[in-house]
Amino acid sequence: MNATPFLRSPPFPGVAPASAAISRVRRHGEGVVAVPDALLDAVAEARVGGTFWGHRPDGIRLVARAGVAVPQALMDGLARREIGIVGKSGGGAGPGADPDPGHALPEPTDLWTLVAGARSVHAAADDELAIIAGLLHVPVFGADGAAIEPATLRDSARAAIAAATYHDCFSGEDVDAAQAVAQLADWRRHLDGNHGIAAASGMALWKREAIRRFLWDGVGSPPFLPARKGLRRAARRDGVLAVWPSRVTPDMLEEARRQGVAIARVEDGFLRSKGLGAALHPPGSVVIDRTGIYYDARSASDMERLLSTTVFTPALERRAARLLTMIQASGVTKYGAGGGQMIDLPHGRRTVLAVGQVEDDLSVEYGGAGVTGNLDLLERVRAAEPDAYIVYRPHPDVQAGLRKGHLSDAAVLGHADAIDTGSPLMELVQTVDEVHVLSSLTGFEALMRGRPVTVHGMPFYAGWGLTRDLAVPNERRGRRLTLHQLVAGALILYPRYLDPVTRLPCGPEIMVERLASGAPSPTSWLIRLRTLQGKLQRFMTLSADYFHR
């Protein structure tokens, strides 16, 4: 029996193999389960099993396991560089030509990408190479040079999957092979999204440990370099430069465009962490967008492409529905579950929540659709809701004194009826009659709670038929989406998540569980210093308001 399970986890850096392991070889006497065709098809569709991470050599037309002879007739017309040898030769080759006629491939090598580009594979029927080739319908030849029947290869795949037991590495509970395949598929998508990133620039020091894990591609993580050095490295390697958009200059991005260097923009995700980003809490979720970025409505993004073109399968929509139920039940928002005392609202009068934002945030500049800041937003909300009781909710980073966008009480109450800074946000969202936002993620969170949302800007969730949009329509949008489809695109397919407990890439379901349960987040001296700085800044701001009355 093979000592290594076919369905297995990548060797995630900084994580003990036992913690990451999703499978183990079945012990003698443990029952064997049937492996249906549908599961084999799911493995092939997800391209998981064996080594599905690592290097991706180009131009390989024939793949052989080291020590397996390849008939000369199948090598005719191929250069040595087109023949890839996997593993180290152990001798004992059968009859035929030189057993290792090509060049040894680097380890690890993504066998799925390798085999998919080949016209033949040469290995024993129970070899991972042969199993993967059979699932990809690539011809396989054994050590004797004879073709191996596709049915034999599928039987080998069934045996390899049935030879292991599986468990959830986040909860420790036993799962079936189909659930293991689903987890491996998420990891595959994560690693595929990092392929080709040659350098990372603009990443704050306190984020780098998390970003290094987010950007690991199955071989390594890109180095953190100043923007110019990162650009040069990406150009030399014909690779991609990952950047934090607010920390690189437009001139540098223009230089990358002139040189033909692709840019991947990295930003906080939508289920972020238990603390504020401005307070230096490292992100538990990021997005990596190679087309644009979700908050910049001026141009296309991977988010728009996902929402406008994805064929949402019934299975994906069911997963989104379950995730939505989890979020609704937990009360989780971008920064975890809320707390505090609920504000009193008047009875018998229409109530509206107006959500403030960080005014120098790029989402306001690029997705604000001409709205200039929080005061302008409040004026527009009052114009749209002349008779409503309006509650203004400042952004938590602004409230903490860490970011720009503070309004004096007098300025707010010139248009709103109340200011709220302490209510549980999602309870407040579900209590008011309508939520008004510029481009705030609170609008998306309100949609997920079934609340009516009016949008004054053009955030990623506007333009799909789920919100009342007051900005000029975006011509790239217009597809009518269900809420489950929006959730699938925005929370499952687009972002990356990192489990704060295991440090493994995870799905949104795990992140919601961790945020709801109060799983500990790391607290560094930088976080404590930043919190103190925010308190001091807020004291100075409020003192200035008082003396200018």
Describe this structure in words.
- Among the domains are: 17-182, no CATH class; 314-517, Rossmann fold, CATH 3.40.50.
- 36% of the residues lie in helices and 14% in strands.
- The protein contains 21 helices and 22 strands.
- Strands 9-10-11-12-21-22 form a six-stranded mixed beta sheet. It has a six-stranded parallel beta sheet with strand order 17-16-15-18-19-20, sandwiched between helices. A five-stranded parallel beta sheet has the order 4-3-2-5-6.
- A hairpin with a 6-residue loop joins strand 21 and strand 22 (505-506).
- It is elongated, with a radius of gyration of 27 Å.
- The model is unreliable at 90-97, 273-280 and 522-542 (pLDDT under 50).
Provide the CATH topology of the domain at 314-517.
Answer: Rossmann fold
Class of secondary structure makeup: alpha/beta
How far from one another are the termini? 81 Å
Strand arrangement, largest sheet?
9-10-11-12-21-22
Overall mean pLDDT:
88
